[in-house]
Amino acid sequence: MIGVLLVSHGKMAEGIKDSVEMIVGEAKQFETLALIPGQDIEELKANILNKSKQLNSGDGVLILVDLYGASPYNASMACVPEWQKQGIDVRVISGMNLPMTITAVCNREFSSLVDLTNESIEAGQQNIKDVISELKSSEKAADSDDY
Predict the structure, then answer these.
(1) Which of 27, 74, 94, 143 would suit a FRET pair with 68, their CA atoms being 20 to 30 Å apart?
(2) Do 4 and 108 contact (CB within 8 A), yes or no?
């Protein structure tokens, strides 16, 4: 099974994990790490390396980070040479949200790491909507169908 690691500023990762488990139940090989104020980036990198090793059962690890280019992302990307050296297959997705995390946790037993990465990104993107604008558009379309 593919391991899933959530890495964020503060408690965001913990909150998303809590919400995922509220919806789908407790999940194995599913962990979080938080960057806390004043924490050294090297310490976060070491924590990411350790957690990714623990989560890897041979199928790889999917890491979701909150912001592209920010410290959790940078610390994750700094681990790439070590993962390559150790033969651990890892993918990192930025812009973590609840729909992509649910997809990752629910589909990881029957997807490859590459497919799971793509499915998770797609789920995250598909759930970003301007709901009021969509509602207004559908109301206008329904009104024009009445004529």
Answers:
(1) 27
(2) yes
Looking at the domain covering 3-145, what would its CATH class be?
alpha beta
**pLDDT tens-digit map of 71-125:** 999 999 999 999 999 999 999 999 999 999 999 999 999 999 999 999 999 999 9
Strands laid side by side in the 61-65 sheet:
30-35, 3-9, 61-65, 90-94
CA 101/CA 40 separation, integer angstroms: 26
pTM of the model: 0.93
Give dist(CA 143, CA 147) in Å, integer: 7
Convert the pLDDT of each residue in 37-57 to its tens digit: 999 999 999 999 999 999 999
Closest CA to 13 of 2, 24, 1, 21: 21
Q: Are 62 and 4 in contact (CB under 8 A)?
A: yes
Cβ-contact 64, 104 below 8 angstroms: yes
